[in-house]
């Protein structure tokens, strides 16, 4: 934990968006902060960096537009969203992220130029900006008391009281959580902003911890929202659950967002009190307890640092995100061995698996594809491996059910092919019969068409010697031409 630097006044705050990085396939921007501060003896400069995703910047923009700086923010647009490029998957390209980095730099330059917004020791300072940049984790700013100018004799006493109160404050605000001040209660979001922020929270939790943890979080959030008695206890329990499920770094973004959404002032204060009363030692104890429970339940590689779900529909099949990536590599290696390193078939398998994960194809269709591609003998093993790499419990259940009926699934596919072949043969037989009937109706002899011309006598009657036999092989072959073709059809 970084130690706070005691200062009396913050003179200037420079914000620069330096670079970007990827954390679990999520781009984050490095925001450098440089604060010029004044102490009783000298001027000091304090520098630090924070990492924020573009979604976190959107949440900050929503909060600051609902604060007392709203009149200035009306003339400051947020960074462009580039919805079209994001939709077509270009949001992860370095060139696009460099453009977004420049847009965020211009945005923060205009925000920090608002008069008084960085004066965090006064009421003009923005709490949203201080929480976003984690200012109070680095600087211990002495608050200026509100003193009447006509009563200057009371100023030293009030200043000493303020200094004592600041010294007695713990270092817990370094967790990046909102302060329990009246200014945080004045943040009011519109209904559309609340819905947007709530959807963003659900999306980030699902990406960070999976669908099972999201369901458990929703259950705990509803219980905290319905709490009437012992709100402080419920708030502490809810915060402990979030730290255990998501970790401290993720809670630095999650807790201020939840505090903004809570309409009840008592519950906001309870959640904030739970944050400030949680010491770093207790957080370390929660993390160690979580790791001990995870090691006792199942031995895992040290690289798997994902937090397991507290509520699992099928514990033996539900896996954290890091295990999914490991299993996915194992499945792809197994498929490469089965197809003999045929890249075209490997890409086809990868495409079908992505379609299944996105629910653009059903588990039944995917199972038929696997059986048709790899055969009955190894299809069960492939389906079970793919099910283990899926985070969705419903897809896991469907694939396991399909793996138990691979042989019947293969039989149904063969029956469908046999039925399709019979239909094709019937159509071919009908076509051959119609062509022969058409030739006879036009006066053509099938024998003449094939080159067989019977000889006639002078009287116009065929002689007995020259009359073709009734069982002529050529005529028999021609009459049964359709049947011969059908029998030789492959």
UniProtKB/TrEMBL annotation:
It comes from the Eukaryota. InterPro entries: PAH_ZNF598/HEL2, PX_dom_sf, ZNF598/HEL2. CDD domains: PX_domain. Residues 329-402 form the ZNF598/HEL2 PAH domain. Residues 152-190, 297-326, 421-476 are annotated as: Disordered. GO terms for molecular function: phosphatidylinositol binding; ribosome binding; ubiquitin protein ligase activity. GO terms for biological process: protein ubiquitination; rescue of stalled ribosome. Residues 180-189 have a biased composition (Basic and acidic residues). Residues 159-171, 310-326, 427-440 have a biased composition (Polar residues). Gene3D superfamilies: Phox-like domain (3.30.1520.10). Pfam families: PAH_ZNF598. This is ZNF598/HEL2 PAH domain-containing protein. It comes from Aphanomyces euteiches.
